């Protein structure tokens, strides 16, 4: 499940995260590399430059999605060549990033700034915090009272990948989803068939799982599915008209492809006779679910909406 989520995150940010077209990313490697322009010295005492395209750095992406920079952090900047000072600045920078995102409503209390560091910087961070390097932050009291997690390299890479994935998901949640306007979603009560179905409230405090913007999307999914299911599959030879359903999540309730097909049919009705009529409306086997998924992907390709979805 995590790998599928990671692939979806990479695809979206690669396609839509940048102001000047596509920019392939890898999580966490390119993100850790592209946070800034850095001059540093490696163990072999060779100098090298981490250089990022002017419009392709991580903070340029954040500026594009948010519309304003993070206070105190420039989109492009150089870091000290001294490894310890570089680590200090990167750790502070990541702390400011997480604080800023949390202030915007992101759920990132479980992500520590050190998990966003590159492996070589994390190693320095552990050495400083355990007193193996002179000028330890712990000895100076700068991190007194804060928990210290010392991870092996493989464990750190796993944690770093998860941390950066969660950061990207929360960036999408707080900067992209709020663009959804509830005015674009008709009142579900306008459909008589929805009167007997429990409603989904969009008020900010009525759910501790989904934000009001996510609930707005759920309301839209329910509305469009109920409005279109009898139209799309009225002549279905593979199960007839599918029954009414209450859509309350973005995984299990979308698994058979029918809900997404109903949304697409609302805007591209010409796909009904060529694609959606061939779907199983009551799929019971993995083969039938795969069949529906293949039709859905082919429909996306037919309208040139190729977002690299893997069946």
From TrEMBL:
GO cellular component terms given for this protein: cilium
InterPro entries membership: CFAP47_dom, CH_dom, CH_dom_sf
Signal peptide (UniProt feature, chain positions): none
Domain of life of the organism encoding this protein: Eukaryota
PANTHER family: CILIA- AND FLAGELLA-ASSOCIATED PROTEIN 47
Domain Calponin-homology (CH): 211-311
Gene Ontology BP term (one): sperm axoneme assembly
Protein known as: CFA47 protein
Matches recorded under Pfam families: CFAP47
């Amino acid at each position: 499940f995590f790998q599928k989520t990671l692939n979806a995150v990479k695809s979206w940010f690669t396609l839509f995260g940048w102001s000047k077209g596509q920019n392939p990313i890898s999580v966490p490697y390119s993100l850790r590399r592209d946070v800034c322009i850095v001059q540093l010295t490696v163990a072999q005492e060779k100098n090298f430059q981490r250089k990022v395209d002017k419009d392709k750095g991580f903070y340029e992406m954040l500026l594009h999605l948010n519309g304003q920079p993070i206070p105190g952090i420039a989109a492009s900047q150089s870091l000290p060549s001294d490894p310890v000072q570089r680590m200090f600045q990167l750790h502070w920078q990541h702390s400011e990033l997480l604080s800023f995102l949390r202030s915007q409503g992101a759920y990132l209390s479980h992500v520590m700034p050190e998990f966003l560091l590159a492996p070589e910087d994390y190693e320095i961070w552990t050495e400083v915090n355990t007193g193996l390097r002179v000028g330890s932050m712990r000895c100076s009291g700068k991190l007194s009272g804060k928990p210290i997690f010392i991870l092996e390299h493989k464990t750190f890479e796993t944690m770093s990948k998860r941390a950066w994935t969660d950061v990207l998901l929360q960036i999408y949640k707080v900067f992209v989803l709020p663009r959804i306007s509830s005015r674009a979603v008709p009142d579900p009560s306008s459909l008589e068939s929805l009167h007997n179905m429990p409603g989904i409230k969009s008020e900010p405090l009525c759910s501790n799982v989904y934000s009001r913007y996510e609930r707005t999307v759920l309301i839209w999914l329910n509305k469009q599915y109920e409005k279109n299911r009898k139209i799309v599959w009225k002549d279905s030879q593979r199960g007839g008209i599918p029954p009414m359903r209450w859509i309350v999540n973005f995984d299990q309730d979308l698994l058979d492809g029918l809900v997404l097909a109903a949304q697409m049919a609302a805007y591209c009705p010409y796909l009904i006779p060529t694609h959606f009529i061939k779907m199983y409306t009551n799929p019971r086997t993995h083969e039938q679910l795969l069949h529906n998924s293949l039709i859905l992907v082919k429909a996306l390709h037919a309208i040139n909406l190729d977002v690299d979805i893997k069946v």
